[in-house]
Amino acid sequence: MKVNVPVHKNEEYQAAVMDLTYEGNGVVKIDDFPVFVPNALPGEEVTVKITKVTRNFAWGRVMEWQTKSPDRVDVKDKAYIQTGIAPLGHLKYEAQLKFKQHQIKELLEKAHLDDIEVLPTMGMQKPYHYRNKAQVPVKMVRGKVETGFYKRGSHNLVPIEDFYIQDPKIDEAILVVRDLLRKYLVTPYDEQTGKGVIRTVMVRRGYYSHEIMVVLVTNTKRLPNADEIVKGIVAGVPEVKSIVQNINDKKTNVLLGMTNKTLWGANEIHDTLLGIDFAISPLSFYQVNPQQTERLYQAAIDNAELDGSQTVIDAYCGIGTISLAVAKHAKEVYGVEIVDAAIQDAKHNAKRNSITNAKFVTNKAEDQFAQWQAQGLKPDVVIVDPPRKGVAESLIEATEKMAPQKVIYVSCNPATLVRDIQRFADHGYQVSKPIQPVDQFPQTTHIESVTLLERDN
Ligand code: SAH
Which among 58, 92, 109, 322 is placed 20 to 30 Å from 267, CA to CA? Predict the structure, then answer.
């Protein structure tokens, strides 16, 4: 079939921006042909230069604005948009929250689920400086050791000092480390040659505890001048509790290797989430926006209406954040997660918090559900917090057979949420309350939400 592509590379058009995609790109249409345009907002009139053409759509760049959206924020530092640190940073925060609510609403409408309501997105008072963790590549840029972030879709480092969405104490610690790397001439790893020493600097800071961990990811076993560098970090980062060297000698985009060597202080730091104390080691998964994670999970837990008598399943439980918070208010909790290291963390954290009614198992959630069902487990509440691809059909089938009164769906992807709402409906579960979006990642396009489903009786 011959497809008529009306646009060609390097042509310029003047057009109105119609829409904003879930990735945060503006959409203009030329003879009905969609052109995606970064940094363009609905309602704006722009001159677009076509940069790339495919069969079904094209990419373009704004050359000039004829009119600007009242929702536009002038981003001072271009690096935020270039790097994808803040792909929605050019949109006012109230408009970001509406955008996220509407994304879910639109997907529901497309699925003919118009009667399901979506509440306004729960946002942050201060929608920046929220990340408790940074993983920053180190590269040689024009003869100088630099820390920053990669330009979108590339490995070209844009040097950045103020990362905008990270805890400012983390930004400060990164600069201390960068200056020490410069002072002691530690060479950055070069992806082309596989040579060089330092690859990545990771810094974590407990939101409540204020404990800082610095991880230096090296390509080599040896870190030259390690003693001096450690002394410099201790002197320059007063809150530091742990300095770790992580060795990653693989040619890979995976940031951390498997070997950790504590250079100074503790092997782990601590922080609390929903009143539970968590130990965080270099490889541990830990939610990056603790303030909003608490609100998201609290919204999920509130839906369960626990009085101490219920049996709860927490599927995709990670390090057991939800399970351990729920355990205080439930008879027993069963957590399942595919990554064994996370389950070990969950068990460790249960013990440290003297929680004895939470059991954790490493398995695929869908397989474990089938087992629990076969064993006759009768949960009152099932909580699921799946990755972007949503839950497996077989998990829904096993849930129907175990027949909990409530299913609470924590979602990080509205598209699979809507698909799964339809599948749950086919298995006897209906959405019984408006969906609550919670903004876990301000300035980015990520959309998290909580949905309560209840069994038809
Ligand atoms: N509730 C968790 C985070 C959930 S993120 C917390 O608070 O920490 C989604 C989790 O699902 C990840 O930890 C991922 O490892 C896990 N996962 C992915 N696929 C899975 C599967 N098929 N079965 C069980 N867990 C899975």
Answer: 322
Does residue 137 sit in helix, strand or coil?
strand
Residue bearing tokens 């070997």: 259
Question: How much is the pLDDT for 159?
Answer: 94
| pLDDT recorded at residue 1 | 52
Distance between CA atoms of residues 285 and 420, nearest Å? 25
Q: How confident is residue 212, by pLDDT bands cut at 50, 70 and 90?
A: very high
3-state secondary structure 219-255: CCCCCCCHHHHHHHHHHHCCCEEEEEEEECCCCCCCC
Distance in angstroms (rounded) separating the CA atoms of residues 75 and 52: 25
HSE-up (13 A, CA, CB side) for residue 437: 27
**168, containing H or E segment:** helix 168-183
Look-up of token digits 């398995």: 363
Q: State residue 75's pLDDT score.
A: 82
pLDDT of residue 228: 98
317 catalytically annotated: no
Give the whole-angstrom CA distance, residue 278 versus residue 153: 34
Considering 412, 431, 450, 452, which one is annotated as catalytic? Answer: 412
- Supply the angle between the helices 414-426 and 393-402 in degrees, to the nearest 10: 40
pTM for this entry? 0.93
Chain Cα centroid distance, residue 343? 20
Collect all residues with Cβ–Cβ distance below 8 Å to 71 and sequence separation of at least 6.
41, 43, 91, 92, 95
Rounded to the nearest 10 degrees, what angle do helices 365-374 and 393-402 cross at?
Answer: 30
C-alpha span between 381 and 383 (Å, rounded): 6
Dist. CA 404–CA 421, nearest whole Å: 16
186, burial (CB in 10 Å: exposed 0-12, middle 13-18, buried 19+): buried
Asked if residues 96 and 88 have their Cβ atoms less than 8 Å apart, the reply is: yes
How far CA 317 is from CA of 62, 345, 354, in Å, comes to 43, 11, 18
CA distance 315 to 335: 6
At residue 353, does pLDDT exceed 80?
Answer: yes
Of 283, 293, 337, 345, best ligand 1 pocket probe by most atoms within 8 Å of the beta carbon? 337
Question: Residue 315 and residue 457: Cα distance in Å, rounded?
Answer: 24
Which residues are near ligand 1 (CB < 6 Å)? 285, 287, 316-319, 321-322, 336-339, 342, 364-365, 385-387
